[in-house]
TrEMBL record:
Family to which the UniProt record says this protein belongs: Belongs to the LysR transcriptional regulatory family.
Recorded GO CC terms: cytosol
Classification via PROSITE patterns: HTH_LYSR (PS50931)
Domain HTH lysR-type: from-to ranges: 1-58
Keyword vocabulary terms for this entry: DNA-binding, Transcription, Transcription regulation
Protein name: LysR family transcriptional regulator
Gene Ontology MF annotations: DNA binding; DNA-binding transcription factor activity
Superkingdom of the organism of origin: Bacteria
Statement: the UniProt record of this protein carries the keyword tRNA-binding: no
Amino acid sequence: MEIAHLELLRELADRGSVTEVARATGRTTSAVSQQLRLLQRTAGVQLLERSGRGVRLTDAGEALARTAVKVSTAIAEAEADWDRYRRTATGTVRLAFFYSAGEILIPGLLDRMDAYPQIELITDERDVGEGDFDALVSDFDIVIAHRSDGGAVADRSRLHVTHLLREPVDVAVALDHRLAKLDRVTTADVIDEPWIGVPKEFPLDRVLSAVSLQAGRDAKIIFRTTHLPLAEKLVEVGRGVALLPRHSSRPRAAGRFALVPLAGIRAGRHLEALSRPDRAARRSVRLVLDALTAEAATL
């Protein structure tokens, strides 16, 4: 079987349509379809079947797509071993991150990557819902994702997952707020406050849902934003309270607002680096992952 044909099958398994595979690989849809038919002929079994206006993988196609991942990972590992032997580290690494993760990780990451001038790091800011980060690995070598404490974890058997850190989430209140001087607050203390929230399906919203569940009534959300500095400003001027990630917001809190830990509930979010297994095996990607892990450890 042609490795390039196996790669197309794997792309189809990840992206779901021939049109998306063509877009991602710079081919025409007819060229992709033709090469997939050649692979099917070589395999000797049906790999694709019609589904509406498109196609989907059969059980045999799914099995061969998993094999394609193993093949590409093995090749990447062999190339990485050779690069280590030659003591070289070159290539382009595409990194997607969300805003608040960038604040606490990217400056230190760039400092660490100065040691590898032949690795080109291309970054792109992507902030999506908790369940939408996994799909980004098709277009990026590394995706920095976050998920809430206790949130359901999707099947990631096709992904390489690197845990970076758990970031506690605190309640942010104005300095003159009645709760600002407390060492910690309970859900009962804060549930009836006006809340500055984030869009639904984001990790901080899931934490606020847990707060509501424990308090026995819904939080009143008066404004939603993904931009933490805006949420901090609204808290500072007394518009409401908010759940804010500690490492991200603490440098801006002094003299503006107070961060108070929540008692009786596990409030936090997990930051993870997601990659395709074959890309994670590349030496250049591995060095960036190692640098991210080292930077996260400093927090």
